[in-house]
Amino acid sequence: MSPGRDLNSRFIPPVTLQTRCIYAADDDLFLPASAVEFGFHAWRMSNAPLVGYSSRMVKKGKNGEWLYNYKDKKGAYSLILTNHAFMDVALLDAYNSPPNAKPRDIVQTRLNCEDILMNFIGTGIYRLPPVLVYAAGGDIIHHQIKGVGISIQAGHYDERSECVQEFSHLWG
């Protein structure tokens, strides 16, 4: 597989990086500058390694399997998507470290789930949950390209549930 199709490459920090924080943003989404500033302030004020604007829920199913879903009815979440998120550079280093080669292989094979893996690593290292940022005006992320992306494909949530299951087996 070419490096350009490896979703892991989005979390390789630049060699010349001289900051403690990275802002990851998908190119098919828009976020107003005021919301980005608010998110950065939230990252600086929290101890969380991952602060973002979109959340998802992972919970156990009836048969004990892990299920990936949008959110529960109460708005609870367990993951932050990295489509617009601030991350500690140490989290990027951990993501790319040799002990995480096997889960990165899962991401590369599936062409999916890099954000789920980032949450697993962040929670495992920092023992802190990711932080969801809300901004005035409700849903602040707007798709610029309608009908494009892996998240609209059939079986997307099943695929991501399988990733959660695989990562859970790796971390116990």
Characterise this structure.
By secondary structure, the chain is α+β, with helices and mostly antiparallel strands. The chain has one domain (18-171): Alpha-Beta Complex (Spore Coat Polysaccharide Biosynthesis Protein SpsA, Chain A), CATH 3.90.550.10. 34% of the residues lie in helices and 18% in strands. It has helices at residues 33-45, 89-95, 101-110, 114-126, 156-171; strands at 21-25, 29-30, 50-52, 55-60, 66-69, 79-80, 84-88, 131-132, 142-143. It has a four-stranded mixed β-sheet. A three-stranded antiparallel β-sheet has the order 5-4-6. Strands 2-9 form a two-stranded antiparallel ribbon. The longest helix has 16 residues, at 156-171. It is globular, with a radius of gyration of 16 Å. The chain starts with 20 loop residues before the first strand and ends with a helix. The mean pLDDT is 85.
Layout of strands and helices, then pairs:
Elements: E1 21-25, E2 29-30, H1 33-45, E3 50-52, E4 55-60, E5 66-69, E6 79-80, E7 84-88, H2 89-95, H3 101-110, H4 114-126, E8 131-132, E9 142-143, H5 156-171
Parallel strand pairs: 3-8
Antiparallel strand pairs: 1-7, 2-9, 3-7, 4-5, 4-6
- Which architecture name does CATH use? Alpha-Beta Complex
Radius of gyration, whole Å = 16 Å
Average pLDDT value?
85
The portion of residues forming beta strands comes to: 15-25%
What is the 3D form?
A: globular
Low-confidence stretches: none
Sheet with the most strands?
4 strands, mixed
CATH superfamily: Spore Coat Polysaccharide Biosynthesis Protein SpsA, Chain A
Lateral strand order in the biggest sheet? 1-7-3-8
Q: Tally the helices: what do you get?
A: 5
